[in-house]
């Protein structure tokens, strides 16, 4: 049988390895990589000190430890809670783009002068849709803004700080109420107050601060109700649950445990309830049937086992769960049972709190035979934890799991109460100094998370690293997060260097022809070279390169047109590679036109022109295609471009320009071209007739036929 000493060393060493991996491969180990982004002095402290404590615990004496001087008095509870609230208020997240925070951005600076007319009606809306909780949070902060005459952003910060202080208070009260051993009290206080769940209280613009406060409070009341069977606790439990339900749909997952607990109160002799509230019975009679119902919903109702995962023109309910079968590239890297998703979930578990995980694992493995697993509270808390864990594993993190870390913190309050119930059963067991030092090491490893999240520079570096991971795995939103991170860099030289480094790292995973995220990064690089550095050659290179991965939007086509004009004005050559790409697009365009797919053909010819603005073949093909589409004004604009570039002989270019102007009924423009032709090329009977006809204003619609005949 493994000894106490060997077990602590093995378990601690095993759990410490992901933090070493986070230092070595920060892009991959996003749940443990926080030390990597701290200044050198803090990097050394938070790496060496925990390592020293773990080594010390491995070789130290196995002596019992007693901290009887520690007394969790009411004054200490109040003081710690006030400190937590104050810290949360003073240190808000400097750049909050996690989860749905961006959705609140348009209203953050507003101050509510009056409540919306449907405020109270909206508050009592309990639609079963993912966004309903977000709407509840919006109503709550609007009320705070109105009542306090403060901005929505300040209302969020105030709500977060208050909830953080109350969360700390509820946790401390729970520890005080259930644990008498003062050494265990100290361990639980430190473990509970350092979980990264507290980041939700640091000015995070989201719904989770009140939700997690309600969840922890509800779980404590739930335990007290089960133990006392006093109906007054049920009178607190149900309103708390309804309030939580208004703020987040996942609170529905507490319903099975609440129903079972209520059933035990009013039908204690019902054999089904007695069996269902023991561990094995809970798994067989409750959890497995609920899992079966979930599978029916997954396959039969939502049909999410086959899902495109595209986040365009959709509602949250349409992308509720991850698919089993991968959609088309580049979204094929992430599905329910892909390594990328499973590894992300593992990272998220590590982010819950290494101290919480170490302590829970230690109790489960070291005292598993001494624990009463059939205790009703433990069985029903486990049921709730399994439900949260299962549903969160299946849920599609719309903003990627690293950026939806707040949503995936739901199991933490459940784990805290579960841990509390376990410690309650073994609190008579002595705490060794060896174990305490190992636990302290993992408590220290929780702190870099806070240091990174509240630091602008560390946030920039961390989100850049996370964005690289997202691009290689979940894919969606990757460029958005990478650009957020990079634009926090104030030094233009360093910005260019970091962006180039990111593009280089992502290049092996970029998918030519279908990669909008990579194309977005190249576009941004091109705009930086053009607008900030004035380097037209590099700007054109980046913008052109982006088209290899995804078609340019109209906005950036116009940008590239300007850059191309500047490029040509500097008499810089078009590369052979770009000329070849233009030729390929022309061939593809002709193939589309031969099938009478003229719009697709025109798009290919336009791309060919962007690759090689001196290609007369591309411009003439554009003009001809728009003629066939009867888009004469568009044809006229391309004829003007043909004339400006000098891609073909001027006489031919002017004839085309005159013809297209007449077809578009742009007669003043046609007259200008005719005069230019006669002055620069020389007399021509057809051009002269066109000129005379326009000047006299006679039979203007017929001039195009005269021109055609000529």
Task: Give the strand tally.
Answer: 2
- Poorly predicted ranges (pLDDT <50, ≥5 residues)? none
Indicate the proportion of strand residues: under 5%
- Percentage of helical residues? 55-70%
The strands making up the biggest β-sheet line up spatially as 1-2
Specify the structural class. mainly alpha
Number of helices: 32
Q: What integer is the average pLDDT?
A: 92
Tell me the radius of gyration: 33 Å
Query: How would you sum up the global shape?
Result: elongated
Distance between the termini: 103 Å
Largest sheet: 2 strands, antiparallel
What would your notes on this structure say?
This protein is mainly α and 710 residues long. Helices cover 67% and strands 1% of the residues. The protein has 32 helices and 2 strands. The chain has helices spanning 4-24, 40-59, 74-90, 101-104, 119-123, 132-148, 152-178, 182-193, 208-228, 231-247, 255-266, 271-276, 279-301, 339-352, 354-366, 376-394, 411-426, 433-453, 456-472, 478-486, 492-506, 516-533, 536-547, 554-569, 576-594, 598-611, 616-628, 632-645, 650-663, 667-680, 685-696, 703-709; strands spanning 64-65, 431-432.
Walk me through the topology.
Elements: H1 4-24, H2 40-59, E1 64-65, H3 74-90, H4 101-104, H5 119-123, H6 132-148, H7 152-178, H8 182-193, H9 208-228, H10 231-247, H11 255-266, H12 271-276, H13 279-301, H14 339-352, H15 354-366, H16 376-394, H17 411-426, E2 431-432, H18 433-453, H19 456-472, H20 478-486, H21 492-506, H22 516-533, H23 536-547, H24 554-569, H25 576-594, H26 598-611, H27 616-628, H28 632-645, H29 650-663, H30 667-680, H31 685-696, H32 703-709
Antiparallel strand pairs: 1-2
Helix pairs in contact: 1-2, 1-15, 1-18, 2-18, 3-7, 6-7, 7-8, 7-9, 7-17, 9-10, 9-17, 11-16, 13-16, 15-17, 15-18, 16-17, 19-20, 20-22, 21-22, 22-23, 23-24, 25-26, 25-27, 26-27, 27-28, 28-29, 29-30, 29-32, 30-31, 31-32
């Amino acid at each position: 049988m493994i000894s106490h000493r060997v077990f602590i060393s093995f378990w601690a060493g095993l759990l410490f390895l992901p933090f070493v991996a986070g230092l070595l491969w920060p892009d991959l180990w996003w749940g443990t990589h926080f030390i990597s982004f701290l200044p050198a002095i803090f990097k050394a402290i938070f790496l060496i000190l925990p390592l020293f404590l773990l080594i010390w615990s491995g070789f130290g004496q196995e002596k019992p430890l007693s901290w009887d001087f520690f007394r969790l008095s009411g004054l200490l509870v109040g003081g710690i809670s006030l400190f937590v609230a104050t810290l949360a208020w003073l240190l808000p997240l400097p750049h909050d783009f996690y989860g749905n925070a961006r959705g609140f951005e348009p209203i953050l600076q507003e101050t509510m002068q009056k409540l919306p007319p449907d405020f109270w009606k909206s508050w009592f809306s309990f639609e079963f849709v993912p966004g309903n909780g977000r709407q509840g949070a919006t109503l709550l902060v609007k009320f705070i803004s109105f009542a306090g005459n403060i901005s929505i952003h300040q209302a969020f910060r105030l709500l977060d700080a208050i909830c953080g202080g109350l969360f700390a208070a509820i946790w401390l009260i729970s520890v005080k109420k259930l644990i008498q051993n003062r050494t265990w009290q100290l361990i639980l206080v430190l473990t509970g107050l350092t979980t990264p769940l507290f980041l939700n209280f640091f000015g995070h613009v989201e719904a989770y601060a009140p939700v997690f406060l309600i969840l922890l409070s509800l779980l404590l009341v739930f335990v007290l109700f089960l133990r006392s069977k006093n109906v007054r606790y049920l009178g607190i439990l149900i309103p708390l649950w309804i309030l939580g339900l208004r703020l987040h749909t996942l609170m529905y997952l507490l319903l099975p445990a609440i129903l079972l607990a209520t059933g035990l109160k009013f039908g204690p002799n019902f054999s089904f309830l007695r069996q269902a509230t023991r561990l094995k019975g809970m798994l067989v009679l409750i959890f497995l049937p609920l899992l079966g119902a979930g599978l029916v919903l997954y396959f039969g109702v939502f049909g999410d086992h086959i899902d495109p995962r595209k986040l365009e023109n959709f509602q949250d309910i349409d992308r509720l769960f991850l698919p089993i079968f991968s959609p088309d590239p580049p979204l094929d890297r992430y599905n329910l049972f892909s390594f990328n998703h499973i590894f992300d979930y593992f990272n998220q578990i590590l982010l819950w709190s290494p101290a919480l995980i170490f302590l829970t694992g230690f109790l489960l493995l070291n005292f598993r035979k001494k624990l009463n697993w059939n205790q009703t509270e433990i069985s029903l808390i486990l049921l709730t934890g399994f439900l949260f864990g299962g549903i969160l594993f299946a849920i599609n993190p719309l903003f990627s799991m690293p950026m939806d870390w707040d949503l995936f913190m739901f199991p933490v309050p459940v784990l805290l109460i579960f841990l509390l119930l376990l410690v309650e059963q073994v609190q008579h067991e002595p705490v060794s100094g060896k174990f305490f030092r190992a636990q302290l090491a993992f408590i220290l490893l929780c702190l870099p998370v806070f240091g990174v999240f509240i630091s602008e520079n560390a946030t920039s570096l961390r989100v850049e690293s996370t964005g690289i991971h997202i691009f290689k795995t979940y894919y969606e939103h990757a460029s958005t997060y990478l650009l957020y991170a990079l634009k926090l860099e104030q030094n233009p030289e360093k910005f260019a260097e970091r962006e180039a480094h990111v593009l280089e790292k992502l290049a092996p995973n970029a998918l030519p022809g279908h990669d909008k995220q990579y194309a977005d990064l190249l576009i941004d690089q091109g705009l930086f070279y053009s607008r900030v550095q004035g380097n037209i050659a590099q700007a054109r290179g980046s913008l052109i390169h982006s088209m290899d991965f995804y078609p340019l939007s109209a906005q950036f086509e116009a940008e590239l047109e300007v850059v191309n004009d500047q490029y040509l004005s500097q008499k810089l050559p078009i590369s052979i590679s770009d000329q070849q790409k233009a030729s390929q697009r022309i061939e593809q365009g002709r193939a589309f036109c031969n099938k009478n797919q003229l719009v697709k053909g025109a798009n290919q010819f336009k791309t060919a022109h962007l690759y090689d603005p001196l290609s007369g073949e591309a411009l003439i093909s554009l003009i001809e295609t728009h003629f066939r589409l009867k888009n004469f004004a568009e044809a006229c604009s391309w004829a003007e471009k043909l004339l400006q570039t000098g891609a073909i002989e001027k006489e031919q270019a002017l004839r085309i320009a005159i013809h297209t102007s007449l077809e578009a009924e742009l007669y003043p423009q046609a007259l200008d071209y005719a005069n230019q032709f006669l002055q620069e090329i020389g007399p021509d009977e057809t051009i002269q007739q066109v000129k005379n006809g326009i000047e006299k204003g006679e039979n203007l619609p017929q001039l195009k036929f005269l021109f055609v005949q000529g």
